[in-house]
Write a structure and sequence with these properties.
Blueprint lengths: L1 E3 L2 E4 L6 H8 L14 H18 L3 E6 L2 E11 L7 E8 L8 H13 L6 E6 L3 H9 L3 E7 L11 E6 L2
Parallel strand pairs: 5-6
Antiparallel strand pairs: 1-2, 2-3, 3-4, 4-5, 6-8, 7-8
Bound molecules: coenzyme A (COA).
């Protein structure tokens, strides 16, 4: 568990599953993903994130703001890309928590854990997902080109991704 001010990054709890599924089913929150996720798909993600934390001691943590589940951030091993294996930092927050700097603050803490396990951390998102790549830039990461995400359909405007690396 990591505690910084009003934020806590911690292992997932069963009580997170419902608000996380609601976030994943929200079309606005998921507008830069090919589609929203069902409750079952959301639960599979929770299981995967929790297992990564159990196995390695770090991963994509649930984030609480003032004791309320707000989303996730953390680092996990990305596979299946030209630049992988690579330690990737990522985030997804409920829209009620956007615009207050929480994602960047939580990610900064996650990044310091990431550096304990890898000399470099990467991040990537759809070119169109400006809110996400702006978090990368606030973290001081540098843009290192673009690539087509192999798991996004070829005709999707979300296929083109930007890759960022820590300096
Ligand atoms: C990506 C995402 C986490 C970014 O959220 P965000 O709220 O823009 O980012 P932060 O939490 O870092 O907040 C930064 C904003 O808060 C503002 N802010 C307000 N008070 C602040 C404070 N005290 N400290 C810092 N920033 C503050 C900043 O000015 C900035 O606003 P701006 O973008 O209008 O300049 C969010 O859009 C999200 O969860 N999207 C859906 C999931 C997603 O796309 N994930 C990424 C997939 S790759």
């Amino acid at each position: 568990m990591i505690s910084i001010g009003r934020l806590v990054l911690r292992q997932w709890r069963d009580s997170d599953r419902e608000p996380f599924a609601a976030l994943n089913a929200d079309p606005e929150t998921m507008r830069y993903f090919p589609r929203t996720f069902t409750r079952e798909e959301s639960d599979v993600q929770v299981d995967r994130f929790a297992a990564h934390i159990d196995a390695l001691g770090y991963g994509l943590w649930a984030v609480e703001v003032d004791g309320v589940f707000a989303g996730f951030t953390g680092v996990c091993w990305a596979e299946g890309f030209a630049f992988s294996p690579a330690l990737e930092i990522g985030w997804r927050f409920d829209k009620a928590f956007w615009g207050r700097g929480y994602a960047t603050e939580a990610a900064r803490a996650a990044l310091s854990v990431g550096f304990l396990h890898a000399p470099e951390v990467v991040s990537f998102t759809a070119v169109l997902n400006e809110p996400s790549w702006r978090v990368m830039e606030r973290l001081g990461m540098r843009r290192d080109g673009e690539f087509d995400h192999p798991r996004v359909p070829a005709d999707s405007p979300l296929r083109r991704h930007v890759l960022y690396r820590t300096p």
